[in-house]
Queue: 4 jobs
Job 1
Amino acid sequence: MTDPQRDIAAMRREYGAQQLLESEAGFDPIALFSRWFAQAADVNPGPWFEPNIMTLATIDADGAPDARIVLMKDFSPAGLTFFTNYDSRKGAQLAADNRAAVVFHWVMLERQVRMRGRTERLDRAASEAYFQRRPRGSQLGALASAQSQPITSRDELEQLLGELEARHADHPVPTPPNWGGYRLLPEEVEFWQGRANRLHDRLQYIIQPNGSWQRRRLAP
Ligand SMILES: Cc1cc2nc3c(=O)[nH]c(=O)nc-3n(C[C@H](O)[C@H](O)[C@H](O)COP(=O)(O)O)c2cc1C
């Protein structure tokens, strides 16, 4: 590599602006997630930044992993929600095996959060309530897109969008029956804080049969 800007092996960043200690972390991972999420949202480095971006990993019919980014739209002790097309690749995978993992990376805070658990579909009313809050363009886009299916061209999509705009011109866009939310119910949550010399802090929480959380520190 002659261009040092592109020498990937030499790309490295030192971490260590903050630390994650047991004394501050507490025993409730959702409460800690809530604090970290608020801090990520507060940093607000620019309009391009979306603190609710998460990578969602699922398992296909052969047991092979798959992953893509989705947007978290809510969280509470009951779990994390996201919305998608139920007939998409991820939708089919979750219908066959509801186990999933998500990963957040808040680069400016040198933080990662990982969660693993099972997913369930939101009830219809909750999915429709969220769909009706979306901008009209996004609603029509969701209606036009048979997500993850092969299409012949970009034109086909644009033409369908035009037809749907005309068909729904004078009334609210109906929520597509194959579109809706999922809730991930975390069973394992890990918080990673970058530290000097790659001696990062990792605290992992595992849910117990009685619903309480067990916490342990992992080697970086
Ligand atoms: C920043 C970003 C946000 C995204 N948010 C969503 C989302 O909330 N829901 C969704 O279905 N796809 C979202 N996508 C698109 C997915 O990554 C993916 O392309 C799509 O859901 C199809 O995935 P699948 O074929 O595995 O089902 C997003 C992509 C990016 C890059």
Note: The chain is about 25% helix and 35% strand.
Job 2
Amino acid sequence: MRTLQVRGASAPSTVAIGETAAALGRYVGDGRCVYVTDANVAALYPQLFEGREVFVMQPGEAHKTLDTVEAVYERLLDRGVDRSTTVVGIGGGIGCDVAGFVAATYLRGLRCGFVASSLLAQVDASVGGKNGVNLHGYKNLVGVIRQPEFVLCDLSMLRTLPPRELRCGLAEVVKAGAIANAGLVDFLEANAEGILGLDLAALEHCVGEAVGVKARVVEVDEHETGERMKLNFGHTVGHAIEKTLGLPHGEAVAVGMVLAARLSVKRGMLAPAEASRLENLLARRGLPTSAPMDRQAILEAMGKDKKRRGDKVRFVLLEKLGQAALVPLGLEELEAVL
Ligand SMILES: NC(=O)c1ccc[n+]([C@@H]2O[C@H](COP(=O)([O-])OP(=O)(O)OC[C@H]3O[C@@H](n4cnc5c(N)ncnc54)[C@H](O)[C@@H]3O)[C@@H](O)[C@H]2O)c1
């Protein structure tokens, strides 16, 4: 097991990589605990929820909404939950986001922790303190930044994760390497079969390195005024692709990263060979590197992106694999690449 601390300005957070969900009691303590999970995870891991107070949401992005949040609030109200209660999200990024948002807002804040059960949640969604829900189809438009007390990344739970979801999580690991950890890119090139084959040592290394990248960025810029935006590499276009084409988050981000790398080459910032390396790394692990995009719909979706400043989008480009830069770009420049 590897333990990392995220020293957020608002609060610290402990991320235990390779910890099992069965050890949750040690992190929660003796107080009351309410779990938030989704129907898939609840069905696969009934032993985790037996005799517990659980809110089971429907899986999927369409349910990561204020309606679901309100339904959880109502359950907490009915059950007379008070400030001594801990809310624990057990699941992928969606369950953790909903649980984190509820915990941050109900009674102006309850204790909160996560058991991240998808690779994407382990390397990205559960770490860093962002807890958001969707509004009118726009991703994570409503949310708060608040660190969870603990995040348990139970690697053994990845055995039941559908392979497509595993690959989506891998896209975020690639992102972490591409923006800030060239050694992780090398490791992924050499060991991706081990990761997709669920080799625990390879997984622990990748999850640890990816969480390390996120922790360092969050520590210097928790509220995303600059450095943290680099974590959005591949996400500005990725979110728009996700919305317009309905691709899963990780696949949309993979396509977004390829476009951002090509744009970096076009601007003379990145060597073409580095962009090809990134593209090959994604393609050889079964991630898409292009998508049948409706250019206008994507530009419109991006116009509503939270990262937009005036007429410019703060775009994350690469200088080399392992080093990102923030560049303000006009939508017309993006249009040319799309
Ligand atoms: N808060 C953040 O900083 C942040 C960062 C990145 C992504 N996100 C959000 O995370 C979400 C995507 O996360 P995700 O891909 O984990 O989505 P998800 O929660 O929908 O999980 C993907 C699927 O896997 C299932 N699942 C989860 N764990 C499983 C397991 N161990 N075995 C079998 N099935 C399992 C889920 O039921 C779901 O069907 C998006 O909503 C995205 O916006 C948030």
Note: Residues 38, 40-41, 44, 59, 61, 64, 91-95, 97, 117-118, 120-121, 124-125, 128, 130-131, 139-140, 157, 160-161, 165, 168, 249 surround nicotinamide-adenine-dinucleotide (CB under 6 Å).
Job 3
Amino acid sequence: MNRLKNVAIVGATGAVGREMLDVLEGRRFAHGELTLLASSRSAGQTLRYRGEPHTVRELTKDSFKGVDIALFSAGGSISKQFCPIAVATGTMVIDNSSAFRMDPAVPLVVPEVNPRALDAVRGKAAIIANPNCSTIIMLMAVNPLRSAFGIKRIAASTYQAVSGAGAAAMDELAAQAKAVLGGGKAEANIFHEQCAFNVFSHNSAMDPRTGRNLEEQKMVDESRKIWGDQTVRITATCVRVPVMRAHAEAINLTLSKPATEKQVREALAKAPGVEIVDDRAKNLFPTSLKASGKDDVLVGRIRVDESQDFETRGGEVWATGFDLFIAGDQLRKGAALNAVQIAELL
Ligand SMILES: NC(=O)c1ccc[n+]([C@@H]2O[C@H](COP(=O)([O-])OP(=O)(O)OC[C@H]3O[C@@H](n4cnc5c(N)ncnc54)[C@H](OP(=O)(O)O)[C@@H]3O)[C@@H](O)[C@H]2O)c1
């Protein structure tokens, strides 16, 4: 009989780590022993899981003995140091950081998009990378249209929640909002700009040569890797907005072949992990709040982009240009849920 796999969460006390616990519990993921790991700062702290307190232990090089699957969400430098140690111990690693995403030997997987990429590592101790959160959320909405009509070009603009920068960033937004409303000054530590009552260019590193920040570059490079298509044209503008969780994105598409709006809606309606929220009569569409805590990516504002080629045939508009507005919880589908789905597939 197959024994149940022992699971470790590295970074269990963080924004993604806590969500991992919630996702494992919610999906009744069958596992053996569960090990919660974080820095020495959190060792001894307890987190509740399935109604019981679980003690957090300090991550060390010996933490992976007897662990079958390790879910990493403790930042790139910890992943670079400890994922190879875990693999050498015989542990299968699913890593949420960007450390290994573009390594050609490492599968970069969204289960609804490219599950076959896991075939190369099935049954082995290896690293599997979870893609960038904005990329996952975008591909959840765009991939069904790629399957049906092909995709030539994507122009994405993001409206990203502060929790994408971790638990401390959520505290910063709350503290700044309180300070400003109380007539005081907002103190910025995590972000380079005030996040309360403000909208600003994404805080990731800016490439002085291209003018693109790292988040924008990830959306281009990772989408191409996941699709195995280096020719698809993608441009992105990534921006932080003062919301706690769930990223929203405005997406402009050029399909490879013309489609009607009805066909686009039908392709989205049957896509797993996608929910259409598109009530023109009531002006109700995806929002960060509606997406918060949800597994599905919400898709709305589905419309023809008449600035691109279109023609009217048989009373219907056939177009290659379409606009969407989407929202997805980046702590769930953009991180924890996607990682747990990969573990389920394995
Ligand atoms: N937030 C998102 O929406 C999101 C989405 C996709 C991917 N990710 C990626 O997921 C990772 C975690 O992000 P997060 O938002 O959860 O960050 P976070 O809230 O800041 O949590 C960081 C976690 O890493 C642990 N950690 C820090 N230093 C450590 C060390 N030296 N040894 C062991 N554990 C250590 C922390 O433990 P302590 O509590 O002990 O400090 C905490 O559990 C990052 O790589 C991030 O890029 C995040």
Note: Residues 11-17, 38-39, 41-42, 59, 73-76, 78, 96-97, 133, 163-164, 166-168, 330-331, 334-335 surround NAP (CB under 6 Å).
Job 4
Amino acid sequence: VFAWRAYPPAAGASDGAYLTAPSLSRRGVRVAFTTRHGGVSREPFTSLNLSYISGDDPAWVRANRARALGVLGLGLSAWTSGRQVHGSHVVRVGPSERGAGADSPADTIPGADALWTQDPGIALAVLTADCVPLVLADPDRMLLGVVHVGWRGLVGGVVERALADIGTGGSMVALAGPSIGPCCYEVGEDVAGPARERFGEEVLRGRNLDLWAGVAGALRAGGARQVHFAALCTRCEPARFYSHRRGDAARQGVVACLR
Ligand SMILES: [Zn+2]
């Protein structure tokens, strides 16, 4: 399902590639999971940092966001994101929310870890650096959602709530992008306990939490049948991804839209 595509060359920007889903693209749903490559930011944000609250120069973040949205065929004004709080609040986005959070973190949609829309030309965005950027796309019904899933949101039911709001009929496809893998996600009992209670022992591997197995379980429970994981660990690959656990303040993420 996943395929890498290169950004077109741009003055001042580094070379880079994004992870997309050509089969969805052909059906009118454009998706780009970003990495740290392809942008204009300098160390320690090198180079495609999408976060205003990272301490990076906002002008560079704007340029990076425009570059990511360019591959969807959209401009910065289409960027629409929520204030991510590791909650399970799901917000339906229409034309009046288009552009929320595009130019400044001040006007992001409050408390929204999951966004969905039926309107073309709105670029839904989620920022991550170890958490799972999740896309829920139904090309038959032209419905699209994006979800920010960390352990807290997962245990809180954000995945099932997003599926319930969007609906799982038709041709729902779930895509889970680069995020911390079971190889690296060591947790304490404060995290392991609630995860075990919610999903059972199979989401734990020794001292590590298997966030991907948890997301897969939540997607199954929510009724999603076509589920695909990039299975790329952000903590394992510092050359390619930002990682919160490794100390990065910068963020990659996913941008997606209906055409
Ligand atoms: Zn890893």
Note: Residues 181, 183-184, 233, 235-236 surround zinc ion (CB under 6 Å).
